Amino acid sequence: MGAVWSSCPRGGCADGGIPKDLVLKKTEHSVKVDFERVMDHALRSWAAYHKPEEIESGVFKQPVSPFGNNSVSREVLPLGSLGLFLEHQKDGTQWVCVRGTDNLANVKDDIRYNMEHSPDLGIRVHKGFLSLYAKAWDDLHSRLDKTKPIKLTGHSLGGAVAALLSLRLKKAGYRLMETVTFGAPKFTDFAGSVQYIKHQVPLLRITNKGDPVPAGPPWDDYVHAGAEVHLFGDDPITFRWINGSEATVDDSEAAGKFWKHMVAATNHRLVDYLQNIWPKMAKRNQALETALKHYL
Question: Where is the Fungal lipase-type domain (predicted)?
Fold first, then answer.
């Protein structure tokens, strides 16, 4: 199977920078998403929460997993309360996975609500996310080959950082193929979201019904960049395609729960995302399913 996204293949993109090979079918009333490839991102986002030695065993060792025997090297880098997981594949593909936080106290210490203009990104960004992005960029860009394809993913705060890295990589001329995030919060304003369309950044956000984190930060200035696929539980067909900054909020209390449930929210855990993505995959391998059931 080819890449989840090319930059923007001839014939146009499905939405902003999202190529049509991920959005397999999209009409006014329906959309078909390649959830097998979304699962590749979800498993790598999950792997980013594990130690390198753990990634070499269990579900990650399965040849039918996205890792299989395709990796040449893997590297874990610290990033404040988050972390970076790098994977280089035999075909030259470079994966960057940004780990979300597992420490709510660190989040409260690190995050400041007001936005600040970023000269290198050309947008206003949530200050806390901007500081994490800046450190990630400093540690990351020298490790990436500008001539080879790059894929990014991340969960929670890691998803926001991955989205910011995507814009920087795209503007700097790197071969960014795709970015898929899970449960990521908002990080910029409307003008910032327009830059993602202008630069054809291939950003897709996956959100769960009942996950309060994508509804925050709970201030009117904040909007989402990229398009969204909203999952309504583990039913094979219940999901919704949402354009651009039209973020889904499941209830009026969601924004108020943003920090309280940043880590503990049942529908925000990456495990819940994996469980809801799996039934929507058209091709499910029994060996991988058995391994996932053991670990989830």
Answer: 96-219
CB within 8 Å of 8: residues ≥ 6 apart: 17, 19, 200, 202
φ and ψ of 73, to 5 deg: -155, 155
Q: What's the distance, CA 96 to chain centroid?
A: 10
pLDDT, one tens digit for every residue, the chain (296 residues): 343 333 333 333 445 555 545 544 444 445 568 888 898 899 889 888 877 667 666 556 555 455 555 665 667 676 665 678 888 888 889 999 998 875 544 445 445 568 899 999 999 998 888 988 998 999 888 899 999 999 999 999 899 999 999 999 999 999 999 999 999 999 999 999 999 999 999 999 999 988 888 888 877 788 999 988 888 866 655 566 555 545 454 444 544 555 555 555 678 888 889 888 988 887 666 656 666 665 55
> What residue segments make up the domains of the chain, in order of their start?
13-295
* Residue 21 CB neighbours (<10 A): 17
Beta-strand runs (E) in the chain? 13-15, 18-19, 23-26, 31-33, 71-79, 82-89, 94-99, 115-118, 123-126, 150-155, 176-182, 203-208, 227-231, 239-242
Q: What is the CATH number of domain 13-295?
A: 3.40.50.1820
| Integer Cα distance of 112 and 89 in angstroms | 36
Q: Are 226 and 201 in contact (CB under 8 A)?
A: yes
Sign of the dihedral through C-alpha 178, 166, 44, 92: positive
Helices (H), the chain: 35-47, 52-55, 104-110, 127-140, 157-171, 190-198, 270-277, 286-295
- Calculate the alpha carbon distances from 134 to 31, 82, 182, 225 in Å: 35, 13, 21, 19
Q: Please enumerate in sequence order all residues whose Cβ is within 8 A of that of 257, keeping only pairs 6 or more positions apart, or say none.
A: 212, 215, 265
